[in-house]
Structure formats: C-alpha cells, structure tokens
Amino acid sequence: MNNRNLTYGIGLGVAGTIAGMQLYQKMTPRTQRKIQKNVRNAADQLNDLVQEIGDRLNDISMMD
C-alpha cells in the first residue's frame, strides 16, 4: 500500500466519522440511548469472545 492509498483511506475514515457524528446528534435521545446500549452489548460480546479465544489458545499452548 502506498502513501496515496493510505491517505485516501484515512480521509474516508475521518469523513465517515464526521458524517456519523452529525447523524447521531440529529437523533432523538431515545434512539441515542438505544444505540449506546447496543454498542455496550456488542463490546461486551466482543470482550467475551476475545477472552474465550485467549483461554483456548492458552489451553493449546499448555498441551505442548
């Protein structure tokens, strides 16, 4: 990947973040709370998954 593609990718990421923030600010407080709850749930699930993967990798390494 050259610098031009990297810069383009970063620019798209920043633009998407700004657009998402604008949409979020225009949402009702109830919708914002639902999104916050869903993000927390997704983060918790991801944390559980990573923990499980780590545990399984640890079990595999203990077998050696």
Describe the structure.
The protein is mainly alpha-helical. 92% of the residues lie in helices and 0% in strands. The chain is flat, with a radius of gyration of 19 Å. It starts with a helix and ends with a helix. The model has no long low-confidence stretch (mean pLDDT 92).
Flag low-confidence runs: none
Assign an overall shape.
Answer: flat
What series of H and E elements makes up the topology? Answer: HH
- Counted by DSSP, the helix tally is 2
**What is the CA–CA distance across the termini?**
38 Å
What kind of sheet is the major sheet? none
Total beta-strand segments:
0
Produce a short descriptive summary.
This protein is mainly α. It has two helices and no strands.
Keywords:
64 residues, 92% helix, single chain, 2 helices, 0% strand, mainly alpha
Topology, pairings included?
Elements: H1 3-26, H2 29-63
